[in-house]
Amino acid sequence: MINHNNKALVLFSGGQDSTTCLAWALETYEKVETISFYYGQRHDIELTSRLSVLNSIRSSFPKWDKKLGADHLIEVDFIKNFFNTALTNDLVIENTNDMPNTFVPGRNLLFFTIAAAFGYKSDFNVIVGGMSETDFSGYPDCRDSTIKSQQVTLTLGLEKNIILETPLMWKNKSQVWDFAKNIGGDALIEIIVKYTHTCYIGNHYDFHSWGYGCGDCPACVLRKNGWENWINVE
């Protein structure tokens, strides 16, 4: 599929992966906007962090600032009422029936659907997401096959050529750090370390070489190990 309007809408949470995807989109497309979701998270630190990330990107990369448009926050907190998960409730993170209880069923599918519908009126036919099959928690809606299937469904359902881009799909966390460095150099790495938030439990006061976080939850472990592996190779 060929993109003719050179515009992209980025699913943006304020975390490491979505920030890296935003940088990639700003290098790839001429006009970029971001869309974020409040889905009843157990903390709002990511949503707050995303504003710091956006401001830092604008000030550190003037060429990206010219391309970066509006940020949209969509409330879909009704899904919190459907499930009892560790991302929406104060629960101990654990695996249950081979699926971690951090899985929010249908979350990514809903995000892509809303983003495609939201972008319809403004002719944003490219939606960028930070899903990965290489380093992920077993979520079925992060799989490449799932994303490709949804792309077909959205294209048919909207009668419009919808493209779902997942530039991190086959990268582990070490490769994500390297990918970010290749896109935006040390300045982007500094933004990711200082301003993004990934920790599941919302720890944004313990600072490490790889950024803020508890250091123990699955998201922190992936980020920390990826950083250490990348630094050792560097």
Automatic annotation (TrEMBL):
Which pathway? Purine metabolism; 7-cyano-7-deazaguanine biosynthesis
**Keyword match Translocase:** no
RNA-binding: present as a keyword of the record?
no
Q: Could you tell me what the cofactor note in this record states?
A: Binds 1 zinc ion per subunit.
Superkingdom of origin: Bacteria
Q: What is its EC number?
A: 6.3.4.20
- Signal peptide residues are none
A GO BP entry is: tRNA queuosine(34) biosynthetic process
State the needed cofactors, names only: Zn(2+)
The UniProt record gives the binding positions of Zn(2+) as: C199, C214, C217, C220
The UniProt keywords, alphabetically, are: ATP-binding, Ligase, Metal-binding, Nucleotide-binding, Queuosine biosynthesis, Zinc
User: What is one Pfam family matched by this protein?
Assistant: QueC
- The residues listed in the UniProt record as binding ATP, with positions renumbered to this chain, are F12, S13, G14, G15, Q16, D17, S18, T19, T20, C21, L22
Q: Which reaction(s) does its UniProt entry say it catalyses?
A: 7-carboxy-7-carbaguanine + NH4(+) + 2 ATP = 7-cyano-7-carbaguanine + 2 AMP + 2 diphosphate + 2 H(+)
Gene3D superfamilies cross-referenced by the UniProt entry: HUPs
GO MF assignments: ATP binding; ligase activity, forming carbon-nitrogen bonds; zinc ion binding
Task of the protein: Catalyzes the ATP-dependent conversion of 7-carboxy-7-deazaguanine (CDG) to 7-cyano-7-deazaguanine (preQ(0)).
Which family does this protein fall into?
Answer: Belongs to the QueC family.
Q: What is this protein called?
A: 7-cyano-7-deazaguanine synthase
Species of provenance: Candidatus Kinetoplastidibacterium desouzai TCC079E
Q: What is the lineage of its organism?
A: Bacteria, Pseudomonadati, Pseudomonadota, Betaproteobacteria, Candidatus Kinetoplastidibacterium
